[in-house]
Write a structure and sequence with these properties.
This is Allophanate hydrolase. It comes from Salinicola socius. There is one protein chain. Helix content is 13%, strand content 31%. With 308 residues, it is of the alpha+beta class. It folds into 2 domains: 153 residues, no CATH class; 126 residues, Cyclophilin-like (Cyclophilin, Beta Barrel), CATH 2.40.100.10. Strands 12-19-16-17-14-13-20 form a 7-stranded mixed β-barrel. Strands 7-6-9-4-1-11 form a 6-stranded antiparallel beta sheet, with no helix packed on it. It has a 5-stranded antiparallel beta sheet with strand order 2-3-10-5-8. The longest helix has 13 residues. It is elongated, with a radius of gyration of 20 Å.
Amino acid sequence: MQTRPASLVVERTGPLALVEDAGRFGCRHLGVTQGGALDWISLGWANWLLGNAPDAAGIEIAIGGLALKAEQTIRLAIAGADLGATRDGEPLDANVSFTLEQGQVLAFDQPRAGLRAYLALPGGIDAEPFMGSLSTVAREQLGGLDGRGGMLQVGDRLSAAGHAGEIRDMPSVPPMPRDEVVLALVTGAQIAHFEGASLFAAFNQGWQVDSRADRMGVRLTGPALRCQLGGMISEGIPLGAVQVPPDGQPIILLNDRQTIGGYPRLGALSPIACAQLGQCAPGTTIRLSPVTPHQARTRYLRQLALWR
């Protein structure tokens, strides 16, 4: 007889702990954004460590502070940022699978490298999806455990959706961004309308990640970029779109972005670059590197192939 899946109880919440999977797709024409894990690569690795599908729902833990108690013995996995995780006060390595015995507490402290850690449960998280996804989008009040876009709260119960599959070891640990990171950008959209000096600055000078950053987007500070384009009709905007508002300081739009926008764009970050940006702390220096759509797609497919 198969036992019921194990569960965890939230004992302490941090700044932001959310249920996230790969996101919601096929609904942007309705004005519903995709949501999903900012660092989809780290979520994929956490799931891979337990033998889950790479897009299974896990917990995105931003900055730390979360504490979870095991109601039954459960196998878990962590990937992504090093948030000083401990098991009953004893340090745990990042990017590993491990067992949490009944009554033991898994706790996260604060960032040591990166910003977001991802916790995977066997088979994902047992909850009711909305539009095919559990991803939490607070602005639209969608997804999550409560179905209304809420972050995890003290007393919430996280139940595994299944049982652990093949337990694996990480073949290599993806590096977390440090003081400087190069992000691949697929040029396009309105790039031809930017002044030559602005284009040179965009790709040859460093940008700093501003403190005004969240799951909707990340502001960059640096040389003011000038566009010769006048008014624009709002149009659909993809993940990683690099918009330039009138102040000339780019905004990179992420998973919880609005579905349309009317500022000119340099283009969009590649999927790999979006995951990297999700781990960049304020003050990190960003350099934009132009790539072709083929190059971006090849690197994306190469990452997916690692989880087969």
